[in-house]
Amino acid sequence: MARKAMIEKSKKNPKFKVRTKNRCNICGRSRGYIRDFGICRICFRNLASKGEIPGITKASW
């Protein structure tokens, strides 16, 4: 889990555009971010396992 201070800090408008950091909309994690869904890889995996993301199914064999 990301610290609340870091999440709030990332919400502010940075002085320079390149300083923006993508964060997961669910947990606030900055690494492993998937742009198409706006969430991190861990949240993506959990939601895909539950079947809550339309068109995505978790592989199992």
What would you note in describing this structure?
It is a single chain. This protein has 61 residues and is mainly alpha-helical. It has a single domain (4-50), classed as Ribosomal Protein S14/S29 (30s Ribosomal Protein S14, Chain N, Irregular). It is built from 2 helices and 2 strands. The protein has helices at 4-11, 41-50, and strands at residues 33-34, 39-40. Strands 1-2 form a two-stranded antiparallel ribbon. It starts with a helix and ends in an 11-residue tail after the last helix. The relative contact order is 0.15. The model has no long low-confidence stretch (mean pLDDT 87). Binds 16S rRNA, required for the assembly of 30S particles and may also be responsible for determining the conformation of the 16S rRNA at the A site.
CATH topology: 30s Ribosomal Protein S14, Chain N
Task: Give the mean pLDDT.
Answer: 87
How much of the polypeptide forms β-strand, as a percent range? 5-15%
Q: State the end-to-end distance.
A: 31 Å
CATH architecture descriptor: Irregular
Shape: elongated
Helix-strand category:
mainly alpha
Would you identify the CATH H-level superfamily? Ribosomal Protein S14/S29
SSE string, helices as H and strands as E: HEEH
GO biological process, one term: translation
GO molecular function: rRNA binding; structural constituent of ribosome; zinc ion binding
Keywords: Metal-binding, Ribonucleoprotein, Ribosomal protein, RNA-binding, rRNA-binding, Zinc
Subunit structure: Part of the 30S ribosomal subunit. Contacts proteins S3 and S10.
